Amino acid sequence: MANISRKELEEVHKQEVFLEDRAGQIMLARQEGREQGREEGRQQGIEQGLEAGKLSMQRLILGQLERKFSAEIPAIIRENIQQLSLEKLENLGRAIDNFSSLEDLSNWCQESEQ
C-alpha cells in the first residue's frame, strides 16, 4: 500500500469538499430552474384561460344580441365588442336587456370606448 502524506490527504479532502459544494450548487440551481418553470407555466396557463374565457364570453354575447335583434350584428359593432376588456364585456352582458335597437347597442359601444 502506498504511503500518502498528510498534505496529499488534506488536498484530497479539499477536493471532496469542493465537489460536494459544487454538487449542492448544481442541485439548487436545478431546483430553482424547475420552480421558475412551474411558475412561468402557471402564469401562461392563467393568461390562456383568461383569453379563452374572454373569447367564449364574446361569442355568447354576440349570440344573445343576434337573437335579441333577429339580425346579424354589423361588423363595426362586432369589432368594437371584440376589443372590449373582460370587465366591459361583463358590463355589456348585464346591459343587453336595456337595448331596444342596434342603435342603442352602437351607442353603448361608443360610450364604452371613452
Structural account:
The chain is mainly α. The chain has one domain (8-112). The protein has 4 helices and no strands. It has helices at 6-69, 75-82, 86-95, 102-112. Helix 1 (6-69) packs parallel to helix 3 (86-95). The longest helix has 64 residues, at 6-69. The protein is rod-shaped, with a radius of gyration of 31 Å. The model has no long low-confidence stretch (mean pLDDT 91).
Tally of separate helices: 4
Shape descriptor reads rod-shaped
The count of β-strands is: 0
Spans of at least 5 consecutive residues whose pLDDT stays below 50 are: none
**How would you characterize the largest beta sheet?**
none
Radius of gyration: 31 Å
Structural class: mainly alpha
Average pLDDT: 91
Task: Tell me the domain tally.
Answer: 1
Please give the share of residues in helix.
over 70%
Indicate the multimeric state.
Answer: single chain
What's the helix-strand series?
A: HHHH
Strand content: under 5%
Distance between the termini: 89 Å
Name its key features.
114 residues
Characterize this entry briefly:
With 114 residues, this protein is an all-alpha fold.
